[in-house]
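I hope you will forgive my troubling you with a question about protein structure. The matter concerns a single protein, recorded as an amino acid sequence and a row of backbone structure tokens. Please examine both parts with care and let me know of anything in them that strikes you as inconsistent. Here, with my thanks, is the record as I have it:
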Amino acid sequence: MKRKYLTILILLITVQSVVAQVTFKTVVSKTELGLNERLRIEFSIDRQGGDDFTPPDFKNFKVLAGPSQSSSFSSINGKTSYKLTYTYVIQPTAKGTFTIPSATVTYEGEQIKSNTVRITVTDAIEIPEDPEDPRYIAQQNIHLVAEVSNMTPYVGESISVVYKLYVDINQVNVQNTREASSPSFNGFWSQNIEVKKWVAKNGTYGGKPHRFVIVRKTVLIPTKAGNLEIEPLEMEITAGVPIGRRDFFGNMLMNDVNFTLTSGKRTIRVKELPSEDKPFNFNGAVGDFEFSVTSSKTELKSNESAQIKVELKGEGNLKLIKLPGIESSNGLEVYDPEHKENISTTLNGLSGSVYDQYAVVPQSRGKFKIPGVSFSYFNPKEGKYHSVDTAPIVLNALTGVELSDQTIVSNKQTVITNEGDIRYIHLKTDFVSTLEDEEFFGSDLFYLLMILPLLSIPLGIFIGRKKLERDSDIVGNKRRKADRLARKFLSQARKELGKKEAFYIALEKALHNYLKAKLHVETSEISIEKIAEILENKKVDELTIQEFSKVLENCDYARYTPSTDVMMKQEYENAKMAISKIDKQL
């Protein structure tokens, strides 16, 4: 028995010593680097059989490339060696001293961790002037510029930001580009204008001729006053720098370099709207507008309705304006308005029209007056306020009952007494008891209970077939499951309908919680563009991604702009539909 225990102990010690000999380590190209530099990090195990590699959380770093996997095997003088390596290229996103945690790998059922690495990130490092250095040559001849149309707008005034990539094609050749980080527009309502195709044009930069392409166009509307910062756009560039030699066919040989370009931060000084001469009914409309209130008809028949349209046309912050309502008079039934928009977005801002259309139905014959509506706006080009007062609308109902003709008639009746109302109480009755003794066996109830199980058999077969058909309906089941999931995540937002800020906060949180549950990714800290990219990688169709992104964008700016119950209900339905569509595709 002792010999048996001794054998087991020796085996355990042998296994532990084998595991202990496995080396899994982290190696970095440098431990101190600038904010604009890259870091190469490798995780290597020196034994075959390492499975389930899990990288660390690269917090405060962004992954530019990887993981790339490589392995090597050698045998020298009978001694063999093996190494499996996972490689990443990362770049810091903030300054400071950070610790990259351990990676993990499973070897023979045991989980092994690599060592942690401490990295110090300093300010961006200036590349020394070296005319022979290809990276220096590339950075001196490629520039990313953010051109802002107006650096000092008023609150609510549209401005545009155009991002241009300038290249001196006589010195370098751009081979590949990738957007590394999207700019954030805190304090602005924003909308991107799609750049369908990059078109190279001639231009100048620093007094020298360059070729440039527009990589992004965005329209911004500041929602508050003060110094607001536009975060930079970052792009990763792969450029070819001529080395002064040609190949056998006469083509210029290139030295490829990779680096990151940034447009730099831009500070916009947003001016408060003037308080002098500000109309009492001003609600934030900024631009150049035409305001009108019209009726589809002024003479109506019985039970006929008129359409009252409150419309705003022109250029300005149309998507952020709440139109004034109409006042109804006695005898008119006014229904909730239908809101419609016809707005185009260009670098000059938003232009088009928005309107609320009310259905109005007279309840009686006569004339009804809808008072005029007052609307005020601020014109930033003129620097002053304008007020528009519309004329009242008179509706003439030609048929129906006049209010003065309507009377309420109450017919009174005399109460007649009858001496015979209360009579003497009979002491004897001819009532017959309904409780007769009847045996259960052989009764109608007995036979009914006997045949009831037989009747339930075809009913059970019918229900079973219906359930089988329902279970085999894969498309229908996915749709029903998606609808239930959408209602589950949006339940809190539905409770907050009517409370603008609470509703949009709950709606935005529900959308991010849904993405977190489905994609296992924390999306609340990343941009809408990045979310769209993740969904695109998951094979979600482009139209569904656009609908989902639109709801997220609306949640961002709707909390700071007027919003009606109708708009909130519509936004809730849009979110429900977007979640349902995505869930059916994932």
